[in-house]
Amino acid sequence: GESVGLHLPTLSVQEGDNSIINCAYSNSASDYFIWYKQESGKGPQFIIDIRSNMDKRQGQRVTVLLNKTVKHLSLQIAATQPGDSAVYFCAEKSPWGGGYQKVTFGTGTKLQVIP
Amino acid sequence: DGGITQSPKYLFRKEGQNVTLSCEQNLNHDAMYWYRQDPGQGLRLIYYSQIVNDFQKGDIAEGYSVSREKKESFPLTVTSAQKNPTAFYLCASSTRGAGRQETQYFGPGTRLLVL
C-alpha cells in the first residue's frame, strides 16, 4: 500500500469502541468544514460536512462537532469497525478571492482498529 | 472514487522528462482540481479550473502545467522544471468552484516516481 500515513499521529482503538479524531483549524473566516477518510493507496472519500452556523451534525455512525470559539473540529465514530482503519483528515473552506473558496486540508490522523 | 478516474496508477519519470497525468470525470462537474500529497503533509493545491478553457495557479504551480479543453478532462503535466516530483497526485472535482458547500470528490490518485 501507499505510505500516506507516515509521520502522522496515530489513534488505536479497540473494535466496538467509539473513536474521536480531532482537528484544529486556523482561519476564523472558514465557513464550511469537511471530514475525509483515506485508505492506503486510495483517494480521499467524503464522510461528513458541517457549516459554520452549526455546532453538531450527525450521519450514519459518525458525528462532527464544531467549536468556533477555539477553532476546533472533531469526528466521532461510533462502534468502530476494522473497515474504519484509515487516515482521517479535516478540510476547511474559506474565501480566497475571485469568488473562489479555498480548501485547506489538515495533515491527518491515522486510525488503527484493533480486532 | 465515484465517477473520477485517474491514470496511470503508477508513473515513472526519467530525468528531464515531461509526463502527463490523466484525470477524467463523468459527474458533470464544472470545477476540477489537482493536488499533491506528500507524507506527513496536507494536500497542496497545484492548479484548479472553475470552467472550461480557464484555470488558475494554486499554491505550488511551479514546474506543472494544465489544460482544460473539455469539461470532463483536466490533465496535469509534470515538467522537467519540477525538481522534486515524487508524490501522490490527486485530482478532484466539484459542482461549482465558488460555492461554500460544494464538496470536492477525489479520484484514486497517481503515484509518480522518479527513476
Show the helix and strand layout.
The complex is a heterodimer of chains A (115) and B (115).
Chain A: E1 10-14, E2 19-24, E3 32-38, E4 45-51, E5 56-58, E6 62-67, E7 72-77, E8 86-97, E9 100-105, E10 109-114
Parallel strand pairs in A: 1-10
Antiparallel strand pairs in A: 2-7, 3-4, 3-8, 5-6, 6-7, 8-9, 8-10
Chain B: E1 4-7, E2 10-13, E3 19-25, E4 31-37, E5 44-51, E6 54-57, E7 64-66, E8 76-78, E9 87-94, E10 105-106, E11 110-114
Parallel strand pairs in B: 2-11
Antiparallel strand pairs in B: 1-3, 3-8, 4-5, 4-9, 5-6, 7-8, 9-10, 9-11
Q: How would you explain this protein's 3D organization?
A:
The complex is a heterodimer of chains A (115) and B (115). Chain A is 0% helix and 56% strand. Chain A is mostly beta strands and 115 residues long. In chain A, strands 1, 3, 4, 8, 9 and 10 form a six-stranded mixed sheet that branches. Chain A is globular, with a radius of gyration of 14 Å. Chain B is an all-beta fold and 115 residues long. Chain B is 0% helix and 48% strand. Chain B has no helices and eleven strands. In chain B, strands 2, 4, 5, 6, 9, 10 and 11 form a seven-stranded mixed sheet that branches. Chain B has a four-stranded antiparallel sheet with strand order 1-3-8-7, with no helix packed on it. The mean pLDDT of chain B is 91. At the A-B interface, strand 3, strand 4 and strand 9 of A face strand 5 and strand 10 of B.
- Quaternary status: heterodimer
Low-confidence stretches of chain B: none
Beta-strand residue percentage of chain A: over 45%
Report the order of strands and helices of chain A. Answer: EEEEEEEEEE
Number of strands of chain B: 11
Mean pLDDT of chain B: 91
Tally the helices of chain B.
0
Shape of chain A: globular
The rounded distance between the terminal residues' Cα atoms of chain A is 20 Å
CA-atom Rg of chain B in angstroms: 13 Å
Number of helices of chain A: 0
The profile of the biggest β sheet of chain A is: 6 strands, mixed
Using a beta-carbon cutoff below 8 angstroms, give the protein chain pair with the largest interface and the number of residues from each chain.
A-B, 32 and 30 residues
Q: Residue-averaged pLDDT of chain A, rounded?
A: 89
